[in-house]
What does this fold into?
Amino acid sequence: MLAQERPYSRRTRRRQQTHQNILQAAHRLFAERGYEHTKLIDIADAADLHLQTLYRHFNCKHELAAAIDREFLKAFQANIVDREQDTLAFWRAWVEDASKNMLELGVDYRKTLLNLFSVPAMSTTFLETWFEYQDTLATEISKDWGTAPNASASAQVLAGALVTANTQVIRRWLHADGKFDLVAEACGTADLVATEFGPALKKNVKKERRAKS
It folds into this structure.
């Protein structure tokens, strides 16, 4: 049985590595040439792949560019479900780790995001991704507060404040040309929103419950 599983495991690892190679090549070329002037064949060549291999991972350039942000979202959604702390503590830890990862990805990643944010179609896609963060956070905050998702606007308001504040930190970092402490600002902003809005909104949920009972 183990002998049968190993080839599948190797294929999976190869596919994951190819996926990452494509993303890294896209980061580099989007940073160097810009989104509009980069073709999929250029990315395939930079990743040392046939174009058809790239198409097995991404259907179009828009999907590939969106994956740069959605990779973080998929990891976030997978991890928040299995969290051991409350949602606000998880979010704080998440933005710290994500900020460190963004810095490790280097200058090409920052330049790529700057370029993609200037493309109208990509800006819309990023906005949709941020809404998914907000909806996921709101659902988990509702669970923490013992309410059904969408039963109260309070969880959605707090989730929106957390995501919007973090997005603004990232935008400031992008335009600061390296003169910005991304990790400290992201963590500080998460703490500020949780402290200033969390208790009041949670109290509002309790009031709503009492009003309904």
